[in-house]
Structures are given as C-alpha cells and as structure tokens.
Amino acid sequence: MKNDRLLKALFREPVDQTPVWIMRQAGRYLPEYRAIRQKAGDFLTLCQTPELACEVTLQPLRRFPLDAAIIFSDILTIPDAMGLGLSIEEGKGPVFAKPIRDTAAIDNLAVPDPESETGYVMEAIRLVRRELDGAVPLIGFSGSPWTLATYMVEGGSSREFTRIKTLMFDEPGAAHRLLDTLSKSVTAYLNAQIAAGAQAVMLFDTWGGVLSPRGYRAFSLHYMQRILEGLDRNRDNATVPVILFTKGGGGWLEDIAASGCDAVGLDWTVDIGEARSRIGHRVALQGNLDPSVLYASPHCIRDEVASILDKYGDGPGHVFNLGHGIHPKINPDHVTAMVDAVHEISRTRLNTMTSAPKQRSR
Amino acid sequence: MKNDRLLKALFREPVDQTPVWIMRQAGRYLPEYRAIRQKAGDFLTLCQTPELACEVTLQPLRRFPLDAAIIFSDILTIPDAMGLGLSIEEGKGPVFAKPIRDTAAIDNLAVPDPESETGYVMEAIRLVRRELDGAVPLIGFSGSPWTLATYMVEGGSSREFTRIKTLMFDEPGAAHRLLDTLSKSVTAYLNAQIAAGAQAVMLFDTWGGVLSPRGYRAFSLHYMQRILEGLDRNRDNATVPVILFTKGGGGWLEDIAASGCDAVGLDWTVDIGEARSRIGHRVALQGNLDPSVLYASPHCIRDEVASILDKYGDGPGHVFNLGHGIHPKINPDHVTAMVDAVHEISRTRLNTMTSAPKQRSR
Predict the structure, then answer these.
(1) Closest residue of chain B to A303, computed from CA coordinates
(2) Contact indicator for A129, A138 with CB cutoff of 8 Å
C-alpha cells in the first residue's frame, strides 16, 4: 500500500504525519457528487449501483489528499435487506414502509445473507479496491445494532425515541431479541465487507448517546462487543482494525475502549487530551473537530486543527476526523484548509519530536 | 412554609422523603392545561397573562403531590423584550421575526428593564405566591446566555447551530459582547424574579451540550458564573438557592459544580451515583430520570425510580426530577406513579437509615 498511515495510526504505530479522513467525505458538499446524484435520481440508487457508489467513493480522494477512502453506502442497508422497505425522503431522512410495530415482527426477522441480499455493497467494495490500487486503505462500515433498531422501530428519524424506548423498558426481552438478530446480521455483513476487501471497518452508533449509562451498556455496547467477537479480522496476512464510534458516548469512553475495538471515535464534546488520559494507551482515537468549525474561515479552521493536535500530544494513535459527518453546505475549500492543516502541523510536530533527542545529544 | 423539602434538599439538609418536581410540569400532557391553552389561543398569551400563567402553574400541584411549583413562562422572554419579536409556531417551536444577523444588531441590544419589560412574569410570580400561601416553594427561571444566544442568532430552533457557531469561531469578540449583554439581562431578570417572590431559581442551559469542552467553558459556563456572582440571593431572611442545568453537560460536572451554584441538574445520560462521587458533597443534584421512562408501564417506572434513588444513595441533597422536560404525550397517571414511587421508596429508605443505628445500639 502506498499510503498506510491510517492503518498504522489505528494500530498505534508511528507515522510521519497524522492521517485524516472525513465522515461522509463523499457527499452533498461536493458539486461533483451533486452532479452524479442528480443523474442517478436518488440516494439509494447511488448506494445500490456499484459503479456509481465506486465513483462517488473516489471523488473526495481526487480533490483532497485524504488518507483513507470509505465505501459510499448507508447505515440502513441491513433493515432494508430484512424487508422493511427503506426510502430516503428529501428533508425528512430515512423512512421505512414496514417498520417494526409488534414483537411478532421482531420474531419474523431473519439474518440477511450479505452476498445475496446486500451484494451491491460487496461489489462496490471490490470495484473501489481495484480502482484505488493500493493508494489508500478502504474502510467498510455498518450501523450499530442499537442504532439500526431505533430506525426500524421508530420507522425513521426520531427526536425522542418514544417507540424504541417503550419497547426497551416494557418488553426488554423482545428488544434483546431484535438486537441479537441485528448483531448477527451486522457481524455477517462486516465479515462479508472484509472478505470483499475492506481494510478497516467502523461501527456507527449514532444513537447510543440517547441512552442512560446502564441502558447503553445493556442495549448498545453489549451487542457491539458481540460483533467484535464475531469478526474475522485476519485477511490476506493483515489484521483489519475496527473503529467504534458512539456519538454522545463521551461519558463511557473507558467502557468503549475495553470493548475489543482498535480505535474509539470521539465527537467534539470531549477533550481529546482528556480522552487519551482517561483511556490510556489501549486504543487509538479518531476525531474530534466540531463539524461546524468548517463554516468558519480557513484561518480559524487551522487554529482549531492545531488545538486538537496539541491536545492529543505526541503519542501515536491519532486519526484526525470530524466529530460527526460533514454538513452538506460546507465549502470544499474549507475542507482543503483542514486537511492541509492536519498534515502540515502534524508533520512539523512529529519531525520536531524525532529530531529533538538528536539535538540534545550534541 | 408547609413543605420545604425542596429548599432543604437544595441546601443538602436532611429530609423525610426525597422532594420531586418535573421540568415542564405545567404543560400539554395535562388535559386541564390543554383546555386553558385552547381558550387563551396561543402559548405566548398564556405566558403573558399573569392570571392564566398563575392558573397553569398551579394545575399540576392540584393533581400530584409535587414538592415545588415552577412559574409558567418561556425561556425566550428576554430576547422578546429586546425587540426580536418572538412567536411560537405549532410543530416548529420558537421563531424570531428579527433575529440577530450582524454585529451591529448585537451592539444595538440593550438590557431590558425586568419590571417594565417582562412585568407579566413578575406579576405572575406574585399571584402564584399568594395562591400557594406557603404550600410549596416557587421556582423562577431563565434560559442561559448561551442558550438565548443560539435562538437569537439562529432565529429559532436549530439542529446544527451553524450561524451561532460561525459567529463564535469567526467573530468571537462579537459573540462575547452578545453573551455579556445577555448575562447582564439574565442577572437583572432573575433578581427581579427573586424580588417578586421566587424562592429558588434555575438556569436552563439547554444547548450548552452542543459545544466543545473549551467552547462550553468560554461561551456558556463563564457567563452563568457571572450571573451567579450578580444574583442577590438573600431575600426575607432566607437564601435563594440556584440550580444550574446544562443538558448534555455530563462531561463537565466538576466545572459546573464549582461555578457557585447550589445544585446541578443532570440529564439521564449520566449515572447519578457516579456524578455524586465525581462532584463530592459541594452541591445538591437534581434529576435524572429519562423522560421516556414515563411511556413505560407504572411497574417499570417504579423500578427505574428505585434504581435512581439507589444509585444516589443515602446522603442528603437529592431533588428528584426528569433529565429533561416531560413529553407532551405522557399519560398523567404515569406521572402519579413516578411521584408516588419517589416519595414512598425514599421515605422507606430514609426511615430505615434513621432507625438502623438504634437497632444496632440495642
């Protein structure tokens, strides 16, 4: 691989500059994405057409010197494969035609076969790997069981999570059966992505942060741990690192770090320096710039990048990223400012580090 | 005062049972509220008509044996008094006709005179005090400067806080001037509420949790501290306790507790037992039931109440509450289940505590 900084950093090995990628880096803020999206018609057609998914996966890499690609897809492919009928409504987000409305529906769910029922994702991964030709690693991903369950039971996005929480409190047995089926499905899905060529995988627990600490451990983290135990992380004489990201999970970083993952994703509400001292050196950290910083001026963006690099300090194991997905109205030039700042500032820092002992020994 | 459990608990004095009140306890989940609201026409008319505000403030106390009243009002009275033109749109939330769109608008803001420009709040407080006749204490409140600023700059509710964060990052001087004016306004406003009869006051920092740790300290907590310094907390030979609540502030509890407040409000994403051990015995804690628990069965509600009381433990200084405002579709019978559970379970616990040493000494 020509640029393996991401994998090195995820395994806490030294790098010459801090690797950076961006959650939702292939997306609406890019005019070239909007052009291809308009031609395709809708978001799901893009996801489900491997050639188009491959193309938009590669778009941000042509524009910015990013250190990773992430397969263009959606977190709700599994419930769609389970027959819930996913559509994405403009301005409203994902909607399921057949949401889970009773425990019978939970007991009727089957674990989808990844290659036959979400084969378009695997095919897109194979295409991207071929196109990348070892330039940077390709990240695969899935939604966490809890996050998938919230959409499946609520029928779409939610503010208060009334239905899933009522299920959780009143019928915990049924909630656990749903999460069990989902964790088996996610395990099979990510193993298929690894087999197809994903060189790192990430679990997006977008809604774990709406739970209480006890609820989080029992209904979200527990099932992510089962996935981590079930992943076949060894492929082609390499180990596939796993990143676990719970938005709003800043209170539970120690638990997340002990889950068996290789890296913990951080949103912007935690100080990355404090996160590192709380977690110690067990895992790498990914994050944690507030996505809103990208609305600010390039000068300000550079300051905020420097602040995060400073707080992380000199140790290995930092993957720079936003603390959540990039917003659709960001100016791509501001992304350039961020990526360049990460590389330039970290390279200077890391080179100073390497040369400092020599100077002292003179 | 007939029932002073709330004030005792806020000052960490022993009580016979844990006091409980509910954020937004006067609200849409009550049919008697919906009836008066329909007659009044809209939410702001209710807030701005002291007799109606008094009536809805008292409604939940007639139904449930709550240990406090909280004045029925809105957090956005101050920006409205500043001339921004508040309206509440059904299903959309608060909207300002004249939001802050440039720094000139910030520099033109004046600190409103609380009695002449938000006199309806003070008059409602005086009415409620007369009606309560010492039954339970009356809580006054305000939005925090940061929270008010988000609405004023965004023009209403927000998901991504684009405008206020761009202001904060790109023009920090202007953001600080806005927050300075707001902290002076909130100080005057809460002092007027105390003079009118509020026996405890609460700062609602609804959106402090969308900031980074550094941003929170500089743009939200700092200004709440200035308010705490400026409050005249001594009235009628009694001290008026102050509760500070930052939703999503679980990562910064130590800082909040050191701000000079008497009690820290907790949402449901922190464990109240861990919060207590992190904070120590400096302040009381208020919270922290997930509002969604009230969708569950009364049996489940009782279990969740017991769990929070267990985690808080035997020390003084707990005010039971939800971790955020009650949802509009909650069944009032479930509120009864919660309030009764808090009183019954805590009374048994606290009595066991008191009698235990006697049994040992026999």
Answers:
(1) B169
(2) yes
**Would you call B24 a catalytic residue per the annotation?**
yes
- Rounded to two decimals, the ipTM of the complex is 0.92
Res. A355 pLDDT band, cuts 50 70 90? low
B300 to chain A: which residues are within 8 Å by CB?
169-170
Over 90: is that where the pLDDT of A353 sits?
Answer: no
Indicate the angle between helix axes B119-132 and B50-63, nearest 10 degrees. Answer: 40
B106 in helix, strand or coil?
helix
Check CB contact of B88 with chain A, cutoff 8 Å.
Answer: no
B205 is catalytic: no
- Using alpha carbons, list the distances in angstroms from residue B360 to A351, B351, B354, B355, B357: 67, 15, 11, 9, 5
Closest residue, chain A, to B269 (C-alpha): A212
Q: Is residue B214 annotated as part of the catalytic site, yes or no?
A: no
Q: Copy the structure tokens of residue B100.
A: 């802050």
Q: Do B295 and A162 count as a contact with CB atoms less than 8 A apart?
A: yes
- Are B207 and B247 in contact, with CB atoms under 8 Å apart? yes
B182: tokens are: 């707001």
C-beta of residue A156 within 8 angstroms of C-beta of residue A88: no
- What is the helix (H) or strand (E) element at residue A8, kind and residue range? helix A5-10
C-alpha distance across the termini of chain B, in Å = 37
Q: Provide the 8-state DSSP code for A113.
A: P
Residues in chain A within 8 Å Cβ distance of B210: 269
| Contact with chain A for residue B248, Cβ under 8 A | yes
* B98 touches A at CB < 8 Å: no
Write down the pLDDT at residue A236: 81
Cite the DSSP H helix spans in B205-297.
Answer: 213-215, 222-230, 253-257, 272-279
Distance (Å) of CA A92 to CA A46, A156, A325, B272: 18, 9, 17, 35
- Chain A hits for B327, CB-CB cut-off 8 Å, are 160, 162
Q: Does A269 touch chain B (CB under 8 A)?
A: yes
Domains of chain A, first to last: 5-291+312-326 (3.20.20.210)
Nearest chain B alpha carbon to A325: B160
Question: Are B194 and B153 a contacting pair, CB within 8 Å?
Answer: no
Query: What's the pTM value of the predicted model, to 2 decimals?
Result: 0.94
CB of A45 closer than 8 Å to CB of A37? no
Report the Cα–Cα distance between both ends of chain A, in Å, rounded: 37
A158 touching B (Cβ < 8 Å): no
* pLDDT tens figures, B162-189: 999 999 999 999 999 999 999 999 999 9
DSSP character string of B124-187: HHHHHHHHHTTSS-EEEEEE-HHHHHHHHHHSB--SS-HHHHHHHHH-HHHHHHHHHHHHHHHH
